[in-house]
């Protein structure tokens, strides 16, 4: 997907312009990429024959391109063969905001909304590279030590690519925003942080003796925040792409 350098910001249009709390919105690529790259799971929304659907799936990014994959039997994927307008979203929950009034209860979050036209990657070489990328993006260098997908596995998997045409990020951070008249109320108020952290790796009992935890998983450490690990994986993946 080699293309000329993209501008620093996505165009602001009626589709991606924030209608409410616009001060929390950002349209620069760095802000959008940061939200996307810190996540493994996205939701893809689309309409088929007038019926709306929203599918959760794993995504990965290369420049302005987003990719995801699924079963060849998927209704969503079959309908994207000729190109289907979609909206892909990612959200992180970072904290619960408890205020002195119900109206001002909120949450700290990071979210991104991306618009584009999704198409099936059907070129055999591009598809093979994409199926390798879905491993290396999260676990850089791992694909090289795995066996290749057999023909049946490759046939049963579809890969979708979408160039991000428009996008926006929306972020809320910080503490409680109460009305001045409510500040003296005898009510507990504050922030309850929310994080997803990695646990201790559990080795499969069928792994042969002598096989140790691999170097390419060195940053997957017990107790680390998942979003930070995924962001680091993306950076390592991009460096590997530059060298290739």
- Count of discrete structural domains: 1
Which sequence of SSEs, written as H and E, runs from N to C?
EHEEEHEEHHEEEH
Count the E strands: 9
CATH class: Mainly Beta
3D shape = globular
Continuous helix count: 5
Report the sheet-strand fraction: 25-35%
* Backbone structural class: alpha+beta
Radius of gyration: 21 Å
Largest sheet, described in full?
6 strands, antiparallel, barrel
CATH-assigned homologous superfamily: Electron Transport, Fmn-binding Protein, Chain A
Widest β-sheet, arrangement of strands = 2-3-4-7-6-5
Low-pLDDT segments: none
Overall mean pLDDT score? 91
CATH topology, by name, is: Pnp Oxidase, Chain A
N-end to C-end Cα span: 14 Å
Q: Which bin fits the share of residues in helices? A: 10-25%
Assigned CATH architecture: Roll
Nutshell version of this structure?
The protein has 244 residues and is of the alpha+beta class.
Structure report:
The chain has a six-stranded antiparallel beta barrel with strand order 2-3-4-7-6-5. β2 and β3 (51-62) form a beta hairpin. Helices cover 20% and strands 32% of the residues. The protein is built from five helices and nine strands. The longest helix has 18 residues, at 226-243. It is globular, with a radius of gyration of 21 Å. The two termini are 14 Å apart. The protein has helices spanning 29-37, 75-79, 124-136, 151-155, 226-243; strands at 25-26, 41-48, 51-62, 65-71, 84-98, 106-120, 157-163, 166-172, 190-193. It has 244 residues and is α+β, with helices and mostly antiparallel strands. The chain has one domain (22-94, 107-175, 192-243): Pnp Oxidase, Chain A, CATH 2.30.110.10.
């Amino acid at each position: 997907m080699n293309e000329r350098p993209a501008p620093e910001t996505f165009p602001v249009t009626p589709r991606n312009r924030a209608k409410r709390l616009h001060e929390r919105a950002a349209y620069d690529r760095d802000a959008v990429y940061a939200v996307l790259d810190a996540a493994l799971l996205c939701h893809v929304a689309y309409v088929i024959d007038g019926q709306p659907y929203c599918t959760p799936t794993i995504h990965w990014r290369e420049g302005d391109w987003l990719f995801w994959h699924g079963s060849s039997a998927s209704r969503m994927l079959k309908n994207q063969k000729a190109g289907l307008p979609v909206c892909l979203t990612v959200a992180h929950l970072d904290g619960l905001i408890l205020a002195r009034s119900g109206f001002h209860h909120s949450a700290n979050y990071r979210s991104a909304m991306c618009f584009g036209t999704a198409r099936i990657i059907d070129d055999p070489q591009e598809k093979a590279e994409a199926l390798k990328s879905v491993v290396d993006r999260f676990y850089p260098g791992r694909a090289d030590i795995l066996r290749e997908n057999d023909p049946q596995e490759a046939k049963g998997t579809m890969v979708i690519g979408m160039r991000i045409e428009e996008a926006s990020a929306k972020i809320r951070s910080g503490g409680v925003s109460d009305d001045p008249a409510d500040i003296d109320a005898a009510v507990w108020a504050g922030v309850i942080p929310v994080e997803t952290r990695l646990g201790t790796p559990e080795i499969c009992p069928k792994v042969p003796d002598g096989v140790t935890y691999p170097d390419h998983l060195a940053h997957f450490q017990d107790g680390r925040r998942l979003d930070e690990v995924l962001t680091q994986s993306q950076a390592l993946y991009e460096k590997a792409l530059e060298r290739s």
